[in-house]
Amino acid sequence: MKNYTHTAHTRFLLNEVHGLSDLFALPRFQHLTTEQCWMMVEAAKQWADRDLAPFFQAMDATPATYNGNGGVKTHPHLRTCIKNGADQGWIGAAAREEHGGMQLPMMIFNAAHALFNSANNSAVGYLELTAGAAALINSFGTRAQHEKFVPKMYAGEWQGTMALTEPQAGSSLTDITTAAHPIGNGFYHIRGQKIFISGGQHEGCDNFVHLTLARIEGAPAGVKGISLFIIPKFWPEDDGTLTYNDVFCAGDFQKMGQRAYVTTHLVFGDKGHCRGWLVGEPNKGLAYMFQMMNEARISVGMGALAVAMAAYQNALQYAHERPQGRLASEKDPLKPPTLIIHHPDVKRMLVTQRAIVEGGLSLAMECNRQFDLSHAASGAAQQEAWLLLEILTPILKAYGSEQANRSAALAIQTYGGYGFTMDFPAQQYYRDLKISTLYEGTTGIQSLDLLGRKVVMEKGKALHLLLQRMRETSAAAGRYQPLQAYATQLETEITRIGSVLTHLSQHAAAGDIDRYLADATVFMEMTSLAVIAWQWLKQGCVAFEHLQKGTGEQPAAFYEEIVHTMKFFYRYELPHAAAHAATLLNEEYLTNPVQTEYLRVS
Amino acid sequence: MKNYTHTAHTRFLLNEVHGLSDLFALPRFQHLTTEQCWMMVEAAKQWADRDLAPFFQAMDATPATYNGNGGVKTHPHLRTCIKNGADQGWIGAAAREEHGGMQLPMMIFNAAHALFNSANNSAVGYLELTAGAAALINSFGTRAQHEKFVPKMYAGEWQGTMALTEPQAGSSLTDITTAAHPIGNGFYHIRGQKIFISGGQHEGCDNFVHLTLARIEGAPAGVKGISLFIIPKFWPEDDGTLTYNDVFCAGDFQKMGQRAYVTTHLVFGDKGHCRGWLVGEPNKGLAYMFQMMNEARISVGMGALAVAMAAYQNALQYAHERPQGRLASEKDPLKPPTLIIHHPDVKRMLVTQRAIVEGGLSLAMECNRQFDLSHAASGAAQQEAWLLLEILTPILKAYGSEQANRSAALAIQTYGGYGFTMDFPAQQYYRDLKISTLYEGTTGIQSLDLLGRKVVMEKGKALHLLLQRMRETSAAAGRYQPLQAYATQLETEITRIGSVLTHLSQHAAAGDIDRYLADATVFMEMTSLAVIAWQWLKQGCVAFEHLQKGTGEQPAAFYEEIVHTMKFFYRYELPHAAAHAATLLNEEYLTNPVQTEYLRVS
């Protein structure tokens, strides 16, 4: 198995495309330099090579498994892995110093986490979950809550989780029923069940801190009556002892992938003495949780692309080593076989993977930048960054996960039959990745978020800003004659988004919101192609400038490859945006009115 | 798990779209009636429900596993399953009566096998492999060879296999090195190794009959020097005893799917006494093997669609039973949740699955019909059927496998997070299906076959005939005003195929065959969309006629669904053909010249 390294492209993205060094002018990041940041990433790579990658296949072969009595058997290396990751700062490094963090920009924190996901996406899930849960306590909890839980979480001793889903409700948080009964001083008795709780119980940590959504007695119906609670498995008493808090792991879900990353079923308060600690104000739980959810969506989208990057790099190496067959033009069977990298179809599959992965990772880095600016900048810059982050997050999540799956399928295909066997990691990347289109809101939910909320938010301001940024890139590229055709194509896509929205908006204006949203996923597919085309033109433009001027950190061949992959994306991927638009502009409305008869089980 | 039944659509395809009863006018099938054929299919369904479906998940959970010493541990039910399947005729029923078969049309034989694939694709693989191997002996072997092997194979006692792939050669049969040394009377000593041999060793049969490609000493290099041999594991002596024939199973490949269908590594003649029996003439082995290969390609394409049908029907049932969330237009959280079938995105995913599966299965049935005509008709009808079968086979294999994978991904997505868990069969269909794009020639190889061989064969006659048949369907549909728009769209696609070929042919004419073929897979994607659009219009036209006239075997609602799904395919799927054409017509040539530097491992 190749040890995946995308440092050159990551450097290019951070230093040359997305302006990492801009951040150091902001008070929050002024303690840092580019060099320090890259030392962190290098250290991250070394840690991934030591504690993550070597256990990728072994952890899959011995999946996390419920022991029948509240416990979950996990791989013996998991504890070391979590502890060492924590010690290196990879749980808490992005937090503020006052919260025990290093105030690392998300651009760097997530660049490191992309490496971890490439190395072992199941193992690093535990760290990311704790990071998100701790960030939630830092943002909305009290100092007392922070002190009680977060240091142990950042030390990798306690696992954080997010406990949202209930069996009867699924993604519909409106319908959660876990109940909280006040017992004074911000404490509540909790009773309820949660499913699909990643990291809810395992042998790698001593305690589990569940950031849990529940309903306080008498709260309004729906999402307006949901509150957020900290519910540890063991309650940390003031004297430092731990008391069992009636949080019982009742089972796990065995899965087709991410088999080392346990998914649990938790029962709160079955014995009547589970205590939860309210975070922030009552009935604002969902708004708080959305902080974690949005960070998790970036994480899942970027993480999926990082897994696909590992699949791609392994496939690429295989293609460089495996001789088989001859080019169609070579008729002499006595000539030695060629390496498969020379077969046009293999090249097409490899460059497709690269176009997806490096295009998607550029969008991920764009999101990380906007995240950093929206947290650390001020005034209009902060506001714009927040708007861009809001509209780009569902696109990254949907494109990153869906296309990472497609990319990993092409990685398997690159190996031929070997790709289907357990002898190569391709199939594991493919199995692991399938969850990414489901985690933190399915692709359908991301698409409803984009078309139903983000496109229309603040009277369309986020969309307007995004299209303006895309136009700026197009204008910048248009200054170079060899890039003009691509700049024009991007303009066409910008216009197309507008035309499609004008068309769809008729339905919203007529009050038919269901029809307006019916093809939200197709709109997502179209829009995400345009957005990735923007990211490719942005990369291509920087690369082209460096080639023109003889500047840049990377060798000329690197920049030529970037320009080439950009052209490939515009030739092979982008044309499908027009196809999606043709679907969306089609007047015939096929999916409604509800035709259950039509869809009956035959 | 739902017990998948696609009988209504299968009946529609056979009886109303693809003219099953036409076959009974041919001498080969004149002993049959429509009723008899359907009795066979009903019996097939009952057998699938009894011996296949109940073991689908259990067989996956206890994969076939090498025992370290030549044997492979398989599920205890496998032997019963093979034996009962054989007794019902599902290995030999399509063979001629003189070969011990029932002269069943492939339309019926494969309609039954589609049900088997829906029920348990791993288990039925064993039967299909034996059927293909026996057919090869029947076609090209001697009567003595037939008598020695085929009755035992049709009885399900001996397993047939196809032994082509060698470790160093992969799909490049030019490079196989397994050696045959003549010892007289058509017998040879064999020495060599084969990998990826499905069914090569297991506990369900007593003997294994390997149809093996090898090179006779002194044979010409390349594919012109390959011969076909029958190599049993145990040699059946004239007195009926079995002598070990030095065929050793040296290991297996563990796989991400089809885990009950063993994939072996075989060593022939390690002890120097492995005997093979030449089939037909020396050096014609590849041509013979292509009979089996072509039948297997139909089988894999159709089988993949049948697996996707099972995934779809399970997802459909789940969507009818699972309440979750509310429509976007419903703002009252106190209203009960809706069944997920009512969410537009869930409907879109389900109808997409249906459009793929039923469109693909119509193409499969078209291929089966042409198979039957090409074997049983005479004169021009026979010749035309053969040409159509030649050009449609790679399209069925590529579209069926690639789109079945996409369809199964949408089935998982329909379940949300549950789809990723082992609690539901969706993930198993998805895992099982991944091999279908690799078996019997990858999608890339099918695409080279289409553009490099089938499009140009007999001076383009096969393509010409296909486009003519497509035009006939368009003309028939164009007579009905409500179908005219679809007829016109199909005409557009027919024209598009011509334009793209004119464009690509420049390179072939200039002698640049590598460039002509470089984007063969994109050409396949474009062409297969047009071909499936043809099949949908064919189905839609028949359904529309029945609705107009109040005729047909099925209720009106069924025909309305067919017309609706046709429209869906034209709206949501077909627009991507234009996108593929845009890629193919793009003048910029990106994948060549060979840029290994560009694709280097970073």
What does this 3D model show about the protein?
The structure is a homodimer. The radius of gyration of chain A is 24 Å and the shape is globular. Among the domains of chain A are: about 5-155, Acyl-CoA dehydrogenase/oxidase, N-terminal domain (Butyryl-Coa Dehydrogenase, subunit A, domain 1, Orthogonal Bundle), CATH 1.10.540.10; about 160-285, Butyryl-CoA Dehydrogenase, subunit A, domain 2 (Beta Barrel), CATH 2.40.110.20; about 440-590. In chain A, helix 5 packs antiparallel against helix 7 (about 285-320) and helix 12 (about 455-480) packs parallel to helix 15 (about 520-550). Chain A has 17 helices and twelve strands. The first copy, chain A, is α+β, with helices and mostly antiparallel strands.
Low-confidence stretches of chain A: 592-598
Spatial strand arrangement across the major sheet of chain A: 4-5-12-7-6
Structural class of chain A: alpha+beta
Q: Look at the structure and name the CATH superfamily of the domain at 7-153 in chain A.
A: Acyl-CoA dehydrogenase/oxidase, N-terminal domain
Note the beta-strand portion of chain A.
5-15%
The CATH architecture of the domain at 7-153 in chain A can be named as Orthogonal Bundle
What pair of chains forms the biggest interface? A-B, 115 and 115 residues
SSE string of chain A, helices as H and strands as E: HHHEEHHHEEEEEEEEEEHHHHHHHHHHH
Radius of gyration of chain A: 24 Å
- Please report the first level of CATH classification, the CATH class of the domain at 7-153 in chain A: Mainly Alpha
